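#structure-requests
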Amino acid sequence: MKKSEYIEQFLNFLSESEKAYNLAIQEKEELEKLESDYIHMLELEDLNYMQRSDLATELRDCLRERRKRKDIVEILEPIVLFRKDESNKKAFGKLTQLLGEVRKIERYHESRHYNKKVQK
């Protein structure tokens, strides 16, 4: 792997982390609404044993999915906050410049050739 690809992967990771973070927050909020629906159905509707059992299973599955999203949010939040910090924004810009410089050098090395001075 080229050195520029490592830098590019890191920059992509920072960008994708923010997108994944925002998506996980939205999904977590939707699952919280669904959880509320299930709880209110258990509380207010006149359900028989099988309906309550099925609803409890759906509630359990909903809670498990919500937990996954919540874990993603907790993991990605420090990364997103790091990227949004003003002092780190400058570093992010410098890393982008660094990527360009390294790519330029790599292209030069790939197309480099030697012109003979004596023998022709």
